[in-house]
Amino acid sequence: MTSRSASRGFATLAGAVVTGICLSSPAFTSELVMFERPGCGWCARFNAEIGPIYDKTDEGRALPLRRVDLAKPLPTDLSGIDPGAFTPTFVVVEQGREIGRIRGYPGDAFFFGLLGRIMNATSGAPARS
Fold first, then answer.
1. Which of 101, 126, 123 is nearest to 28 (CA)?
2. CA 84 to mean position of chain CA atoms
């Protein structure tokens, strides 16, 4: 086996190990969970105004968005989180426990302001100005 072949083999093995570790452990310790229902007009408004850009924002990088359809069974890892009666409801979850929530969608400026307050109060992350 040549040194080039050995290097490729090692790189392939290392990549497989890293992938296995990443897939076997939670990707994020904190996330923003959006509880939504089919036909929810405010959910649709959020999806139109913020959905396309959220993951590009500082908030989106710090708190990846996870969508949960309330027409389906609640995921087991969220069984301790009350989704509430209104949709959308956004819940900041850190290591499986609720840190803060936003009930409803108040528009993009208010949404980011409220989310920034939750982040600022819990993690010290700067609030959006």
1. 123
2. 18
Cα 20 versus chain centre, distance: 21
Tell me the pLDDT tens digit for each residue of 15-67. Answer: 443 334 333 344 448 999 999 999 999 999 999 999 999 999 999 999 999 99
Determine the Cα–Cα distance for residues 62 and 116; give it in Å rounded to an integer: 11
Q: Is the pLDDT of residue 7 over 80?
A: no
Q: Are 34 and 69 in contact (CB under 8 A)?
A: no
SS3 content of the chain, % helix, strand, coil (to 5): 45, 20, 35
- 3-state class (DSSP) for residue 26: coil
pTM of the model: 0.73
C-alpha 53/C-alpha 77 separation (Å) is 26
Report the mean per-residue pLDDT for the chain.
81
Phi first, then psi: what are they for 127, rounded to 5°? -75, 150
- Sign of the C-alpha dihedral computed for residues 125, 61, 37 and 77 taken in this order: negative
